[in-house]
Amino acid sequence: MEAIYLDHAATSPMANGVVEAMIPVYKDIIGNASSVHSFGRKARQQLDTSRRVLAASVGANEKEIIFTSGGTEADNMALLGVAEANQDKGNHIITSIQEHHATLHTAEKLEKQGFRVTYLPVNEAGLVSVQDVEAALTDDTILVSIMYVNNETGVIQPVDEIGDLLKNHQAYFHTDAVQAYGLVDIDVHEQGIDLLTVSAHKIGGPKGIGFLYVKEGVKMTPVQFGGEQERKRRPGTENIPSVAGFELASNIAMETKQIRNERYQKYKQILIETFTEAGIAFSINGDQEKTVSSIMNVSFAGTNVEALLANFDLSGIAASSGSACTAGSVEPSHVLSAMYGSDSPITTNSIRFSFGLANTEDNVREAAARVASIVKRLTS
């Protein structure tokens, strides 16, 4: 029985050629990019080249890219660094109740340090309201952090509109674009984005590398201390092989963006048609007119997450849920709770299917049939 991977929003397999591109860097570029000798200059050349490519992918310039260990560190840096550096302007931060925990837990830490945080609600479509952002703004607001695409539902947030709203306000605008990058067109300057988070392993790059775009002029304090790497904003010897892998994965993602969007949209249709033909009860969470092609969050009435995931795994299907499963109980997804209320059964019977490099039309069709069969059995 073929194992089928439908959890690309968690992490993606490496894109073709990425591993091969990294091996010679591991072997041949042995210097530290901060060293002045020829070995160091060779490392610096690779670092600078990759930084330019990745900056261009979001419409930034190379001086605005800080390499990090991934999305979590970048989110942490954005919130903690901006909050500390801008306390003289105010102590108010706006985010949403459905953010990734890398943002939410950082916001909670800032609250303990005396900052005031407003957590905006979302509607049943999974969208933050621009009017709510506007109503929450005060003269003390120094940062607004709203994710670009929700990692559980795939719903695209009104980033352009929030960027426009904040153009005449002192608050900086941060967006976690981990699930958007490589699928959605991003131009940070046109969209009024001041800080933006990206992670390589979501697009077929290596794990343990990401970047934070920080618009030139944004006041941000470092949150780690050591050397003067990354323009004194993120100390530590740069991970040159992973940076090179990230560069290639980004190039591949940008070149294949349209093809992959069309392909993943077709995969969604296969799931919908298969579930419908099987006669199982299901509904899709989030506004399907405003979701990325790669993520589909499905509620299966009369089931629960633990039984679904266990049975999927036994049948070779890898999918996931926003629910945290612990000994005999399920903690409802904070995203779906925000959309439907914590008492809704949707919060504990929904599965996220996410498409990517490991999928073909055939294996998606096979996975859909297996899922439909399991749901039928569990609800009969």
TrEMBL record:
Coiled coil: none annotated. Residues 4-365 form the Aminotransferase class V domain. It is an enzyme of class 2 (transferase). It catalyses: (sulfur carrier)-H + L-cysteine = (sulfur carrier)-SH + L-alanine. This is cysteine desulfurase. Keywords: Iron, Iron-sulfur, Metal-binding, Pyridoxal phosphate, Transferase. Its cofactor is pyridoxal 5'-phosphate. Gene3D superfamilies: 1.10.260.50, Aspartate Aminotransferase, domain 1, Type I PLP-dependent aspartate aminotransferase-like (Major domain). InterPro entries: Aminotrans_V_dom, Aminotrans_V_PyrdxlP_BS, Cysteine_dSase, PyrdxlP-dep_Trfase, PyrdxlP-dep_Trfase_major, PyrdxlP-dep_Trfase_small. It comes from Oceanobacillus sojae. Its EC number is 2.8.1.7. Belongs to the class-V pyridoxal-phosphate-dependent aminotransferase family. NifS/IscS subfamily.
